[in-house]
UniProtKB/TrEMBL annotation:
Record keywords: Membrane, Transmembrane, Transmembrane helix
Protein name according to UniProt: Membrane protein
Keyword Transmembrane attached: yes
Tagged with keyword Mitochondrion: no
Source species of the chain: Brevibacillus parabrevis
Segments crossing the lipid bilayer: 6-24, 31-60, 66-84, 105-122, 128-152, 159-179, 185-208, 245-265, 271-291, 303-326, 423-440, 447-464
Length: 465
């Protein structure tokens, strides 16, 4: 085998199982992750002070690894706030409403627009924008509020967030946990995201039309109270010409970013930096045009709100990410050269041991990683456990001898589709509230399409391994 498993490996496996159990029980994983880091340090070094200091060191390591991702999301959310306050977001999206002529077009137009905007702004800011502007138009076209919520949910928190091709927050987390380049995970995720997206949205639309025909969902033609007041007027009015100029400038700049990524072969951190820098420039320009003399102070105010959002989202991720980083090269960075002789990292060692003791097939690997992704999504965030999915994908890929990127992408997709806001009711609240529907009913209607989509996607992943 090259390396014999030690107590250190047993402690790691024990806490991985403990974290999965806590997720199944819908309990927070921060405490067990921190205790796991401390015990790993204690077993490896035999020093209480090193173990306690390692907790802090692991947090620093995790934050250092995740900081570019956290920062770009903070800046994009801050930019979204100023664009919303000035009415630029509404001006950008309103031309799309002219394409909505019937319920079918409403479903697909709203979904596709939500997906595109979510790639650049993330789904959370996009929900209020799309819902407020397009919901009344969709209702008049005959699509019920539940249909709008389903479309926004599946295309935004499902397709866009599970791929996350532009901001690259999700693939960065899973790639680092699996010890892979971000671009490898993104490339491997493309066919899986397409399969998952097509199967889920088509089945959801079929169920929706069937229920509309049977009268189970009455088609409404009235605006819902949830959106009656939203975007009625910009909180910081801009002259019409200026607002239209910014509405044209924002998508143009991001389109140029995408072109630059292809032209100059910008990948991973370089691509993220370009998107983040562009968002920051838009934030500065829009804020100064809107607030003029008070612009200097408002720039800081918008940045603060963005950072508050970012750290609220990633706060629960840091402890669990810190633990799973200990399964790879992060352990040596935090605790020093204390691994057993010949060890290639805890997860790699476990993968080699697994390959020598249990016959692991690609079918077993794909089903297990997908199941773990679903379990990690049960906390309702989708992000807190994708490092676990990445770590297990690395383990199974080591046992199989190939397929690390595909398994990592599969785990990422499963975790985010379940926890990122399509199945777990408390993760559905923003879309449900904007559309004025029950989040539990929305979750129930998403369940079968998402479950079928995950099954088909897992089968496709087996053939790609």
């Amino acid at each position: 085998m090259g390396i014999e498993l030690a107590w250190l490996h047993g402690v790691y496996v024990l806490f991985v199982l403990g974290i999965i159990f806590m997720m199944v029980m819908r309990r927070d994983t921060s405490l067990i992750s921190i205790v796991g880091i401390a015990l790993l340090g204690l077993v490896a070094t035999g020093s209480v002070t090193s173990a306690i200091g390692g907790i802090f060191g692991s947090f620093i390591y995790a934050i250092t690894e995740l900081l570019p991702t956290i920062l770009v999301i903070c800046i994009i959310v801050a930019m979204s706030h100023v664009l919303t306050d000035t009415g630029v977001n509404e001006t950008m999206i309103r031309p799309m409403t002219h394409l909505i002529r019937n319920a079918t077009l409403a479903y697909w137009v709203i979904g596709i627009v939500m997906m595109v905007i979510s790639w650049f702004f993330w789904p959370s800011p996009a929900v209020a924008l799309i819902g407020a502007v397009m919901l009344p138009v969709a209702l008049r076209a005959g699509l019920p509020a539940m249909g709008v919520a389903i479309a926004m949910n599946l295309f935004g928190h499902g397709i866009a967030l599970s791929g996350d091709f532009v901001i690259q927050g999700a693939p960065t987390l899973t790639a680092k946990a699996a010890g892979l380049p971000v671009q490898d995970v993104i490339s491997a995720s493309v066919p899986l995201v397409i399969v998952m997206g097509l199967v889920t949205t088509i089945i959801a639309f079929w169920y929706l039309k069937k229920d509309m025909r049977l009268g189970n969902i009455p088609a409404s033609t009235n605006d819902t109270p949830a959106t009656a007041h939203v975007f009625s007027a910009a909180r910081v009015p801009l002259p019409t010409g200026t607002r239209r100029l910014l509405a044209a400038l924002v998508p143009l700049l991001f389109a140029l970013d995408v072109a630059a990524m292809f032209a100059f072969d910008l990948r991973g951190g370089d691509a993220t930096a370009l998107v983040g820098g562009t968002a920051l420039l838009i934030l500065l320009i829009a804020t100064m045009l809107a607030h003029k003399q008070k612009g200097l102070e408002q720039v800081t105010s918008h940045l603060i709100s963005g950072f508050q959002f970012g750290f609220k989202v990633f706060g629960p991720v840091i402890p669990i990410a810190a633990f799973f980083y200990m399964g790879d090269s992060g352990f040596v960075k935090v605790f020093g050269e204390v691994l057993p002789a010949g060890s290639q990292g805890i997860v790699n060692d476990l993968g080699v041991a697994l390959a020598h003791t249990i016959p692991i097939s690609k079918e077993v690997a794909a089903l297990t990683v997908a199941a773990v992704g679903v379990i990690t999504g049960l906390d309702g965030s989708g992000f807190s456990g994708i490092t676990l999915a990445g770590s297990l994908a690395q383990l199974f890929a080591t046992a199989l001898g190939a397929g690390a990127a595909t398994l990592t992408a599969l785990g990422q997709i499963a975790a985010i589709w379940v926890g990122g806001g399509t199945i777990i009711p408390w993760a559905l609240i923003p879309a449900a509230a904007i559309c004025g529907v029950d989040p539990f009913e929305l979750a129930r209607r998403n369940l079968y399409p998402v479950a079928i989509g995950l099954l088909v996607t897992t089968i496709v992943a087996m053939f790609l391994l």
